[in-house]
Amino acid sequence: NAGVTQTPKFQVLKTGQSMTLQCAQDMNHEYMSWYRQDPGMGLRLIHYSVGAGITDQGEVPNGYNVSRSTTEDFPLRLLSAAPSQTSVYFCASSYVGGTYNEQFFGPGTRLTVL
Amino acid sequence: KNEVEQSPQNLTAQEGEFITINCSYSVGISALHWLQQHPGGGIVSLFMLSSGKKKHGRLIATINIQEKHSSLHITASHPRDSAVYICAASWIGGGADGLTFGKGTHLIIQP
Fold this sequence. Notes:
- The structure holds two protein chains of two kinds.
- Helix content of chain A is 0%, strand content 48%.
- Chain A is built from no helices and eleven strands.
- By secondary structure, chain B is an all-beta fold.
- Chain B is built from no helices and eleven strands.
- In chain B, strands 2, 4, 5, 9, 10 and 11 form a six-stranded mixed sheet that branches. A five-stranded antiparallel sheet of chain B has the order 1-3-8-7-6, with no helix packed on it.
- Chain B starts with a strand and ends with a strand.
């Protein structure tokens, strides 16, 4: 099993550009989520999904979109990148019941917005 | 707002020392998670517990539900234990809307 994979590992964008961060898992987990990690702050939830076709907002959803067309994939879209979105992004997955079960994290994507 | 507080923020110790990292939370939880993050690396789940104590190798996690407090202990610490240790809580009634994370404890074990 590859576990949770994320691409790209690193990305530099200019303000206003859009892009998609990819996340995939091969463990048949129903629950998937996106977090951002900023210096001096704990990880914060952006969006999450409890199954294909179902998504919801987390603590810091503004400027991001998600979709969940398959169990395996949960892409995160930045619509118009801003310097405030410079961060490290982690995707995570777990069995349904989400927060009550062990979460598996991807390796992270380091994004810089100039 | 449900909060998770960790202490200390930074900890430097000598190889072989017994390490304790503390985590406190504000309201009732359904589970408390301990995670490890190596420099430049991803995040790995170490423990998930809702009561009592769990042990894996040199790592021990305990939780006191009444005091809303959890500790992560490392026995016979080694330089390879150097990492950021993060506690995170899932809340009673919180549903599937993710975890609340502490800010992490940066641990350095010197040889």
